[in-house]
Specification:
The complex is a heterodimer. By secondary structure, chain A is an alpha/beta fold. Chain A contains 25 helices and 12 strands. A 7-stranded mixed beta sheet of chain A has the order 2-3-4-1-5-6-8, sandwiched between helices. Chain B has a 5-stranded antiparallel beta sheet with strand order 4-3-2-1-5. Classes of the chains: A alpha/beta, B alpha+beta. Strand 12 of chain A pairs antiparallel with strand 4 of chain B.
């Protein structure tokens, strides 16, 4: 890094097109990390100016005001004021404002100009402004503000040329000083009156679309269709990719098996490392498909509208309108769901959403449900219409949703911060999403998952392999090898705790490797019953050897059980706190235990 | 819905009301034309309010802080009314 590199920071209101401008400036030369100690994204990139000078660009979180109302806004405030530990004060502040929304955005420009730092103003979205007949006298505006003003179109090739040229020019002096007691709103009004002409306050297309999209009936119908599409996509479209990756990793494992001599090393490679890598990679299709939808909805301006429609409903349970999509996604898998909570700006609402997301019945529970329902619930119709098996499955889903509402309600009552947290959410103009911004967003999400969550999942999978493999079975062993391993010893120890739930020792052992992923529990049961991976025979064994009470108890257990280390790893990364992980695992375990205990004891009394 | 009113002031709900301060920063200041554009489907909550060139979704408790004058309906700049 040359010492002559210029450091600029993009600052502006949310929805000013700042990140699109950042993508335009830096392309793929960007790095996404977190600010030290917090889970707020720090986006930095660089480009080479026409003069040959290297320019480092920091894309600061969007803010409405330096009177910060969220952790994101506090970061922006502290960095532009040069008081964020470990971050140097930017040489030049590039203030980005939406040219169609100057009444709001110019106030923040004036607030920033009070810092007295070198600054320039980029009037972004000039294409939309021209379409709406908005005319801006940039020369007069630059004179009044005392800073260079350039026009940009972040979504058009070469749309930042004026900005690049201005950054390369001589460093501007401090902007026009405002009186300490100046009324910023009055100043904005005067500036607008002198330099800007706006034919109408809103875009006609926004008014027309909002009349439909926010309509109490029609709007909800559209939302239902959108949600159904997302749910279908994450659930069904990802499945072939998911199965493909799974089969590919298995085939790779078999290929390695053929190359190496039998032994602990081969087992470690195949059942530990390759299986662990597979466990990480299978999540990618769901994550990418979900985020494709979320990014398109967010960029187009629909996501805040969906939150508007659902806010009242979700608030009853102590959540927010923005909680809905993460929770819906969690029906496919809690991991993309928890990652999707990034669109919830309020930290308290976000944590509550993360804590209840694992209660949504994820697709990994289905193999367990299917096995037990097929083995124990007779194929009968109820009321001549519904299959009993389907009804039981439906009940399990509803149990998850109801308990999520209950837990969210309890969290709302118990948290220390009982203050009012505002919605105050801007509904921006509708926009056509730009493919480049979507592609960069998807790439970032994928890399964040692989780098930050993948490592933990891989390490824990290897650990579970170790527990299930050592020590090996003694000579003349009558039970399957896993019985004698550490996992077996732990599982048999757990039997004392789980006996009141009706769990036999085979179930208890299967629970240990089953922590890797819920569906692994079924494969582990097959191993414990020495079926050598033959899962078809498992149903018969289970049906003949288990009581109905035990089966119902295990079903209840899986509605709540926190047995998915990938979810716990994601929560650790997304909240940057082990405390939250323990809280989540603790309450899920407690609920699972109580629900199973009640189910088993009641079922035994009734039978 | 749709009739324009004028903001009189934003009232603080208790000392150091950050929400009231934020409303003022967003442009809810005396003399500014304001208009309710849409209402949420459940209990007409939240409400969508047009202030300046921007639309904000405000919950009832947030919107209740904004005192408005409905008599002097202003038409200037209010092309969307």
């Amino acid at each position: 890094m040359s010492t002559a590199a210029l450091q600029i920071a993009l600052v502006g209101n949310p929805n000013c097109g700042k990140t699109a401008l950042f993508n335009q400036l830096t392309g793929r030369r960007q790095k996404v990390a977190n600010y030290a100690g917090v889970t707020i994204e720090r986006k930095e990139g660089h480009y080479t100016a026409p003069s040959g000078r290297s320019v480092r660009v920091l894309d600061l979180p969007g803010a409405y005001s330096l009177a910060a109302a969220s952790p994101d806004e506090a970061i922006t405030r502290d960095i532009v004021m040069g008081r964020y530990p470990g971050e140097s004060i930017p040489d030049l502040i590039v203030c980005v404002a939406d040219a169609t929304n100057l009444r709001l955005h110019l106030r923040f420009v004036l607030e920033l100009s009070r810092l007295g730092r070198p600054m320039l103003l980029a009037l972004n979205m000039m294409d939309a402004a021209k379409r709406r007949g908005i005319r801006i006298d940039t020369v007069a505006l630059a004179r009044e503000l005392g800073m260079p003003v350039v026009e940009t179109i972040a979504v058009k090739r070469g749309g930042a040329a004026g900005l690049i040229a201005e950054v390369d020019a001589a460093m501007p002096g401090p902007p026009t000083r405002l009186a300490a007691d100046a009324d910023l709103h009055a100043r904005v009004r005067a500036l607008l009156a002198d330099t800007v002409s706006v034919p109408r306050r809103t875009a006609a297309i926004d008014d027309a679309l909002d009349r439909i999209v926010l309509h109490p009936m029609l709007g909800l119908a559209i939302l239902a269709v959108v949600m159904f599409l997302i749910f279908q996509a994450v659930f069904s479209w990802a499945t072939p990719l998911h199965d493909g990756i799974d089969a590919g990793m298995r085939a790779f494992g078999e290929w390695v098996r053929a190359q190496l001599p039998a032994g602990a090393l081969r087992s470690l490679l195949i059942d530990g490392v390759i299986a662990g890598l597979g466990a990480v990679l299978v999540f990618l299709p769901q994550i990418l498909i979900l985020f494709l939808f979320i990014l398109v909805l967010e960029e187009s301006g629909y996501l805040p509208r969906a939150a508007f429609l659902l806010d009242r409903l979700m608030r009853g349970a102590g959540l927010t309108g923005r909680s809905f999509i993460p929770l819906l996604s969690s029906f496919a898998c809690a991991i993309p769901g928890i990652m999707a909570t990034r669109s919830i700006t309020d930290p308290r609402d976000r944590l509550a959403t993360i804590l209840v997301a694992p209660l949504m019945t994820c697709s990994a529970r289905l193999p367990v449900y299917t096995l037990l329902i097929a083995a124990f619930i007779p194929q009968r119709t109820v009321g001549g219409l519904f299959g009993l098996q389907g009804l039981v499955l439906f009940t399990l889903y509803v149990a998850g949703i109801l308990s999520a509402l209950g837990v969210a309600w309890v969290i709302k009552r118990m948290r220390r911060d009982q203050g009012e947290h505002a919605l105050m959410m801007e509904l921006p103009s509708y926009r056509m999403p730009h493919p480049r911004d979507i592609a960069i967003g998807l790439y970032e999400r994928g890399m964040i998952f692989l780098r930050r969550v993948g490592g933990i999942i891989l390490a824990l999978t290897v650990l579970l392999w170790f527990l299930s493999s050592f020590p090996g079975a003694p000579a003349g062993a009558t039970e399957p090898a896993i019985y004698y391993s550490l996992a077996g010893i732990i599982g048999r120890g757990l039997h004392a705790i789980f006996a009141p739930l009706g769990f036999n020792w085979q179930i208890c052992i299967a629970l240990v490797p089953g922590m890797a992923a819920r569906e692994v529990a079924v494969a582990s049961l097959a191993t414990v019953y020495a079926l050598g991976g033959n899962e078809d025979g498992l149903q018969a064994i289970v049906a003949s050897q288990w009581s109905l009470a035990t089966a119902l108890s295990l079903l209840a257990w899986y509605v709540f059980a926190p047995m998915c280390i990938s979810t716990l790893a994601t929560v650790r990364r997304e909240t940057n706190s082990w405390r939250n992980v323990w809280m989540l695992a603790g309450y899920l375990f407690g609920l699972a235990y109580l629900a199973s205990l009640a189910t088993y004891q009641i079922a035994r009394l009734l039978s | 819905m749709g009739a324009s009113a004028t903001v009189l002031q934003v009232e603080d709900n208790g000392p150091d009301d950050a929400i009231a301060q934020r409303l003022r920063d967003l442009g809810f200041v005396a003399g500014e034309p304001v208009r309710v554009v849409a209402l949420g489907p459940l209990g007409a909550d939240p409400m969508l309010v047009q202030i300046g060139y921007t639309r904000f979704a405000l919950r009832r408790a947030e919107a209740a802080r904004v005192r408005i004058d409905t008599t002097a309906a202003v038409g200037i700049m209010d092309g969307a009314a």
